[in-house]
Design brief:
Blueprint: H1 7-11, H2 15-21, H3 31-42, H4 48-58, H5 65-79
Length: 105
């Protein structure tokens, strides 16, 4: 995707967001967190398909499409306040049913 399509919209973003967008780290130095944080910072300004195009344009390496899609989906969930399904604590086992099939308790 060519960035000129979004150039005027990007120019209207807060300076911090513009700086983040233009400073993707090199592979092995935090590209994954950059993708997520950048997607999250763009959720108030763009639709998901636009965020995907923008992040793909500014990412410092190729082959990150699936990672970008996941990050945008998760960023949108967080922006909407949908915290479920994330990295919160989860029970390792189901609750114990003390009545059980044998009625021992």
């Amino acid at each position: 995707m060519e960035i000129s399509v979004y150039e005027s919209a990007i120019a209207e973003l807060p300076k911090q967001t513009q700086d983040r967008l233009r400073n993707c780290p090199e592979p092995g130095h935090g590209v994954n967190p950059w993708i997520f944080k950048t997607a999250l910072s763009l959720t108030n300004y763009f639709e998901d398909h636009d965020i995907i195009d923008i992040v793909e344009t500014f990412v410092s390496c190729s082959g990150r499409r699936r990672e970008i899609l996941r990050a945008v989906t998760r960023a949108r969930e967080i922006a909407k306040g949908e915290e479920g399904g994330g990295s919160g604590p989860k029970a390792l086992w189901p609750d114990v049913d003390f009545t059980g099939p044998f009625g021992l308790y």
